[in-house]
Design a protein that fits this description.
Layout lengths: L2 H14 L7 H16 L4 E8 L2 E7 L2 H13 L3 H8 L2 E4 L9 H9 L4 E6 L8 E7 L7 H55 L3 H15 L3 H11 L6
Antiparallel strand pairs: 1-2, 1-5, 3-4, 4-5
Length: 235
């Protein structure tokens, strides 16, 4: 039995307990440590995210992982791209005999990372991407290690995907709060102008917008000035 088989259940349990509300670099550091514990050696971990501008690496535990990701981005093909765009698992058993992704294979052999497992984030996530696990030993002859690496990468992709989703949700909540605060102060400014200049709500908003454009100042900042001083900022 491969030594990884005995360690894997406990490691997967620990992986499920990794807090997803922590910054991504800290989560990746913990994931890389668990990968080492489960699989041996020093696996390099990276995270690929696919956006409107293409794929990019948003986090890595080692520079070699970022470098091998970049090779695939430049080539427009590779295990990490396939996994990230399909949400599935892609395995490169041995870079020395790999034919599907020649650019990746050459770079992986040169970097002494002959095994690779890329696991896409679960389907339906708002953040498309995946987790990449670069291993020093090849997986071709060691079916036990390959199976363990696939299981680990699949579970780790869920943890990292949840981390990114949490971060995005928190960012959206922050933006929403800023928008609500801006709306509140703009409504206050409209009230000041309506009372002072006998304007309608529409006229007050148009006046705020006009001054914002004339002074090249954010509408919210103009509104804050009106609320605090009772006057428009100098044009």
């Amino acid at each position: 039995m491969n030594p990884a088989d005995g360690r894997l259940p406990g490691v997967l349990l620990d992986l499920g307990l990794v807090p997803v509300d922590r910054p991504l670099p800290l989560v990746l550091e913990q994931v890389a440590g668990l990968a080492t514990e489960a699989l041996g050696g020093q696996p390099a971990v990276s995270v690929t995210v696919v956006g409107t501008d293409g794929a990019s690496t948003v986090g890595t535990s080692a520079q070699v992982a970022a470098d091998l990701d970049a090779v695939q981005y430049r080539a427009g093909r590779g295990a990490c791209l396939d996994a990230a765009t399909t949400g599935e698992v892609r395995v490169l058993p041995d870079a020395a005999s790999e034919r599907r992704w020649p650019e990746l294979a050459r770079a992986a052999v040169a970097a002494d990372r002959r095994g690779l497992v890329s696991a896409g984030f679960p389907a339906g996530r708002s953040v498309p991407g995946g987790l990449n696990l670069y291993l020093q030993p090849a997986l071709q002859a060691d079916t036990g290690l390959r199976a363990s690496a696939e299981r680990f990468a699949t579970h780790a992709a869920v943890t990292v995907g949840n981390t990114l989703l949490y971060a995005r949700t928190a960012q959206l909540a922050e933006h929403l709060q800023v928008a609500l605060d801006s709306r509140a102060v703009i409504d206050q400014a409209k009230g000041v102008l309506m009372e002072r200049y006998r304007l309608t709500a529409t006229q007050a908003f148009e006046a705020l917008t006009r001054v914002s454009n004339q002074t090249n100042t954010k509408l919210r900042d103009v509104a804050v000035h009106v609320v605090e001083t009772g006057q428009f900022p100098p044009v």
